[in-house]
Amino acid sequence: MECLIGIKGKDFVIVASDNMAAHSIIAIKHDSQKQFELSDRMVMAVSGDAGDMSNYAEYIQKNLKLYEMVQGYKLSPNAAANFSRKVLAKALRSNPYMVNLLLAGVDETGEPSLYFMDYLASMAKENYAAHGYGSFFILSTLDRYYREDMSKDEALDLLKKCIKEVQSRFIVNLNAFSVKIIDGNGVTEVADIPGRGTVHKDVPLEAIHPLLAKA
Amino acid sequence: AVVSTQSTGTSVCLRGDVIVVLGVEKRSVPKLQDERTVRKIHKLDDHVCMAFAGLTADARILVNMARVECQSYRLTMEDPVSMAYISRHIASVKQHFTQRPGLRPFGLSALIVGFDYDGSAHLYQTDPSGTFHEWKANAIGRNGKTVREFLEKHYTDEIAASDEACSKLTVRALLEVVQSGGKNIELAVMRRGKPLEILDTKTVEKLVEVTEAERDAEAEAKKKAAGKS
């Protein structure tokens, strides 16, 4: 039910993920963070089994940090992606990580890259990618409107278009999406793209049912 | 093993309130050798670093073990290591090697310094035997004793409160045993919340100049006072 989107531009990558954590038909959390910063220029968005998601992403995060400490320099997004894929592949035939992910990063020269990986340890370097049921709608939209020379604003508009499509045609309401942009200056968190419905927070009891009003 | 800790140049370390300073005596590097590979100040994590005196190869192993431990701790505890924790870890590794058959002790003393999660600065020293103690300021290596005695005389809480004073005292302490000049001193500074900063030669030389001038001025003042009385 989760949705991840990645769009690469000339010198930036945008990653968006929904904020819902669900167990079967219940949404237990509306503000879960599915994006993990692997370094100051790399982000990994994960979806899949809840425990595996954080376990795997944090494992990759700390191993990349260790490499940086021991060797004295950071790994490039290409190296980090291949390392992540290797971890998935080694576990696949014994104790697989049930996670699908997008790894986005900008390397030292300013070159952006976006990697699509799934739970079977496949990897593809793409200009745009998506995970989840939403990908059926998103990939069609991106196939139609994506251009390699888009500016950040144009790419964000295209992202909003994709999310609007998901919110309109996917039967599950995924509500808000978190968006991060990675460019030569690092990772920036952009304002959430709001959902259709609002989450009930601090609603007074009377509003829920008149009988609950204090006498 | 203790003898090998005396074989290399002096390392000195000061713990201030919001800053920690490491000073290391730099051996003169042969012309064809790349200076960057002769490092005695190592970063263990974003908030911890260590200087050592003794066998460089042994230090490399310990440093990498400590780096793995720092990340492993972050992975399981979701928190950065405290200075006490990582010093105890390094010390117990060292102790392990003194008590197992077929192993020899690590030939180095380490000065581990950094900031805890609550922002407080700490400095720990470990020995080849595996003991560790907390210090406010310490020196190890060839002329460690001389430098330590100098620090005992001159370290005050006032100095600890000022960034600049800490750096100057470190330089001054090293100058007691090291030939003058920025080429022979490597200085690293870590401020609370900021990454380790290894100062470049120019900055070090300027600091050495300022410190030497202050020291000479003090000596002059003392002479005059002695002359009067």
Q: What does this protein look like?
A:
The complex is a heterodimer of chains A (215) and B (229). With 215 residues, chain A is α+β, with helices and mostly antiparallel strands. In chain A, 33% of the residues lie in helices and 31% in strands. In chain A, strands 10-1-2-11-12 form a 5-stranded antiparallel β-sheet, with helices on one face. In chain A, strands 5-6-7-8-9 form a 5-stranded antiparallel β-sheet, covered by helices on one side. The longest helix of chain A has 22 residues, at 50-71. With 229 residues, chain B is an alpha+beta fold. Chain B contains 7 helices and 10 strands. Chain B has helices at residues 2-5, 56-77, 83-99, 144-154, 157-161, 163-175, 201-228, and strands spanning 11-15, 19-25, 41-45, 48-54, 108-115, 121-126, 132-135, 137-140, 185-191, 197-198. Chain B has a 5-stranded antiparallel β-sheet. A 5-stranded antiparallel β-sheet of chain B has the order 3-4-5-6-7. The longest helix of chain B is centred in the last third of the chain and has 28 residues, at 201-228. Chain B starts with a helix and ends with a helix. In chain B, 42% of the residues are buried. The chains are: A alpha+beta (215), B alpha+beta (229). The A-B interface holds A 58-59, 62-63, 65-66, 69-70 and B 43-45, 64, 67-68, 70-72, 74-75.
Reconstruct the topology from this structure.
The complex is a heterodimer of chains A (about 220) and B (about 230).
Chain A: E1 4-8, E2 12-18, E3 21-23, E4 26-29, E5 35-39, E6 42-48, H1 50-71, H2 77-92, E7 99-106, E8 112-117, E9 123-125, E10 128-131, H3 134-145, H4 152-169, E11 177-183, E12 186-193, H5 205-208
Helix pairs in contact in A: 3-4
Chain B: H1 2-5, E1 11-15, E2 19-25, E3 41-45, E4 48-54, H2 56-77, H3 83-99, E5 108-115, E6 121-126, E7 132-135, E8 137-140, H4 144-154, H5 157-161, H6 163-175, E9 185-191, E10 197-198, H7 201-228
Antiparallel strand pairs in B: 1-2, 1-8, 2-9, 3-4, 4-5, 5-6, 6-7, 9-10
Helix pairs in contact in B: 2-3, 6-7
